[in-house]
From TrEMBL:
Keyword list, A-Z: Carbohydrate metabolism, Glycosidase, Hydrolase, Polysaccharide degradation, Signal, Xylan degradation
Transmembrane segments: none
Domain GH10: from-to ranges: 36-334
Enzyme class: hydrolase
Keyword Hydrolase on entry: yes
Signal sequence interval, chain numbering: 1-38
Annotated protein name in UniProt: Beta-xylanase
UniProt cross-references to PROSITE patterns, sorted A to Z: GH10_2 (PS51760), RICIN_B_LECTIN (PS50231), TAT (PS51318)
Organism: Actinoplanes oblitus
EC code(s) of this entry: 3.2.1.8
Length: 481
C-alpha cells in the first residue's frame, strides 16, 4: 500500500439497479431478521453464495494471538500485505527470497484459507536494483520477476494481481519507469503471467475506479475491453475500494461492477477500508457485490483498526482490541441474506439447479409463461419472448453439458450483446460465451459472458426477453420443467 490522494467527493448521480445499496446508504441500516441457521463468520457467510471474504495479512503480526485468531476464524481468503511484492521477493536481481511470502502462504493453507498473490508489476515498492534500470533491461527484469515468482507459487494461489495501479486519475497511463519501456508493458506482463501459470486467475488492480463516471475508471475499462477483444489473457479486475471522507461509496458502484463483468471478467473488491467504518457504506459495497454474479469476493485491508495503514481513521471491521464493530454486523447480515445457495453465483461455482439433458420448458416465475421462439422461426436473430406454454418444439429447450440452451437441436439461446437491455435471440450454435448460460439454484439464468440475468419487463404474451443486472425479482426467475 502507498498513501493515496483522495478523490473529491462526487454526487450520487444514479440509483443502483437493484436499489438495495442506495437504500442502505440512505438509511445506514440493513435490517435482517435473526436466523438461527445463519453463518456466524464473514468467510462462512460469503461462501454460502459461492464467494470469499478475505483480509490482508502481515507476517510480522501473526504472533499476535488476537490478530491471528480473528484472521483464522473470520476469513476464507488471505492476501499478503507486503510479503509478495517485488522488493520482498527479489531483493537482488535473480536472487529470490520467498521466506516471508511462504510464511503467510503456509499459515493460511494450514488453516484451510486460500491465498491471493499481490503484486507482480508495480511502479512502487520496487527493489533498488530494479529502480535503476530502464528500457529493455527493465522490461526483461519485469518478465524475469514474473516468471520467478509465479514459478515458485505455480498451482498454489487463487489469483495474482499481475499489474497494480498503472493509471492516472484522468484515465491516462501513469508515467512510471515501467510505462517508459513501452505502452504494451501491461499486455506483456499478462501474457508472461499466463504462460508462467495457466491455472491462476490474472487480475488488474487499482484504486479510485469505483465511480463509473470517473476518468480513471473509464481508462481502466477501455484497457480491459481492448484486452478482451484481442485475446490478452486477463481474468479479473480488482477494485481496491478505499473509501475516505472525500471518496465515498458512489451511487453507481454496482453499475461499475456490472460493466466490468459484462466484458467477460470477474470483479473483486480487493483492499476495502472505509473512514470510521461507515455502516451504510460497508453494507452498501457488500450488497453491490452480491448483486453482481461475477463479483467473486471482498477483501478488507487489515484485520483490526490498529493494523490498518489508515489506523487513525478507524476503517476496519474490528477495533484495536479485536472487538466487532457495527459495520461488521451490517456486512455479516448482508452476506447471510444472500445465502444459502448463490443469489449471484461466481462463474466457478454456478450451483446449477438443472442437470444437462432432456428438452424442457423455461417457465417464468412471475408470468407462468414459457420462453418461446415466435412463429416457430428457425432464423438466426429471432428474438425470444414469453408466450402461453403449449408443449411445441419452439418452447422445448435442452441444457447441454457445455452450458448451452438449445432449441430445434441446432439453434442456441444467444445474447446479442452483454449490456443491460441486450436482446436474447436464437442463433446457430457456435460455442462462444454469449451462448453459454448458468442455470442457478435460485431460479436465475445468467449469461457466462455478461454475468447478467435473463429478464422480462412484463408478463403478457409477446413480452421480449433481454439481459439485465440481476436483482432477485420474480421477473428474473425461471424454472426448467
Amino acid at each position: 500500500m502507498a498513501t493515496r490522494s483522495p478523490v473529491p467527493r462526487r454526487s450520487l448521480r444514479a440509483a443502483l439497479t437493484a436499489g438495495v445499496v442506495a437504500a442502505v446508504a440512505a438509511t445506514g441500516v440493513l435490517l435482517v431478521a435473526p436466523d438461527a441457521s445463519a453463518a456466524s463468520t464473514l468467510g462462512a457467510a460469503a461462501a454460502q453464495s459461492g464467494r470469499y471474504f478475505g483480509t490482508a495479512i502481515a507476517g510480522g503480526r501473526l504472533n499476535d494471538s488476537t490478530y491471528s485468531s480473528i484472521a483464522a476464524r473470520e476469513f476464507n481468503m488471505v492476501t499478503a500485505e507486503n510479503e509478495m511484492k517485488p522488493d520482498a521477493t527479489e531483493p537482488q536481481r535473480g536472487q529470490f527470497n520467498f521466506s516471508a511470502g511462504d510464511q503467510i502462504y503456509n499459515w493460511a493453507t494450514q488453516r484451510g484459507l486460500k491465498v491471493r498473490g499481490h503484486t507482480l508489476a508495480w511502479h512502487s515498492q520496487q527493489p533498488g536494483w530494479m529502480q535503476s534500470l530502464s528500457g529493455s533491461s527493465l522490461r526483461q527484469a519485469m518478465i524475469d520477476h514474473i516468471n520467478g515468482v509465479m514459478g515458485h507459487y505455480k498451482g498454489k494461489l487463487t489469483a495474482w494481481d499481475v499489474v497494480n495501479e498503472a493509471f492516472n486519475e484522468d484515465g491516462s497511463r501513469r508515467q512510471s519507469n515501467l510505462q517508459a519501456t513501452g505502452n504494451d508493458w501491461i499486455e506483456v506482463a499478462f501474457r508472461t503471467a499466463r504462460a508462467a501459470d495457466p491455472s491462476v486467475r490474472l487480475c488488474y488492480n487499482d484504486y479510485n475506479i469505483e465511480n463509473w463516471s470517473y476518468g480513471k475508471t473509464q481508462g481502466v475499462y477501455n484497457m480491459i475491453r481492448d484486452f478482451k477483444s484481442r485475446g490478452v489473457p486477463i481474468d479479473c479486475v480488482g477494485l481496491q475500494t478505499h473509501f475516505t471522507g472525500g471518496s465515498s461509496l458512489p451511487g453507481n458502484f454496482q453499475t461499475t461492477l456490472s460493466s466490468f463483468a459484462a466484458l467477460g471478467v470477474d470483479v473483486a473488491l480487493t483492499e476495502v477500508d472505509v473512514t470510521n467504518a461507515s455502516t451504510s457504506q460497508y453494507a452498501g459495497l457488500t450488497q453491490a457485490c452480491l448483486n453482481v454474479p461475477r463479483c467473486i469476493g471482498i477483501t478488507v485491508w487489515g484485520v483490526r483498526d490498529s493494523d490498518s495503514w489508515r489506523s487513525s481513521e478507524s476503517p476496519l471491521l474490528f477495533d484495536g482490541g479485536g472487538n466487532k464493530k457495527a459495520a461488521y454486523t451490517s456486512v455479516l447480515n448482508a452476506l447471510n441474506a444472500a445465502g444459502p445457495g448463490p443469489s449471484s453465483p461466481a462463474p466457478s461455482d454456478p450451483s446449477p439447479s438443472v442437470t444437462p439433458g432432456g428438452a424442457k420448458r423455461i417457465v417464468g416465475a412471475q408470468s407462468g409463461r414459457c420462453i418461446d421462439v415466435p412463429n416457430a422461426s428457425q432464423n438466426n436473430g429471432t428474438r425470444v419472448q414469453l408466450y402461453d406454454c403449449n408443449g411445441q418444439a419452439n418452447q422445448a429447450w435442452t441444457l447441454t453439458s457445455s452450458k448451452q440452451l438449445t432449441v430445434y437441436g441446432s439453434k442456441c439461446l444467444d445474447a446479442a450483446g452483454s449490456g443491460n437491455g441486450a436482446a436474447v435471440q436464437i442463433y446457430s450454435c457456435n460455442g462462444q460465451a454469449n451462448q453459454q448460460w448458468n442455470v442457478n439454484s435460485n431460479g436465475t439464468i445468467t449469461g457466462v459472458q455478461s454475468g447478467r440475468c435473463l429478464d422480462v419487463w412484463g408478463t403478457g404474451n409477446g413480452q421480449q426477453v433481454q439481459l439485465y443486472d440481476c436483482n432477485g425479482q420474480a421477473n428474473q426467475r425461471f424454472s426448467l420443467s
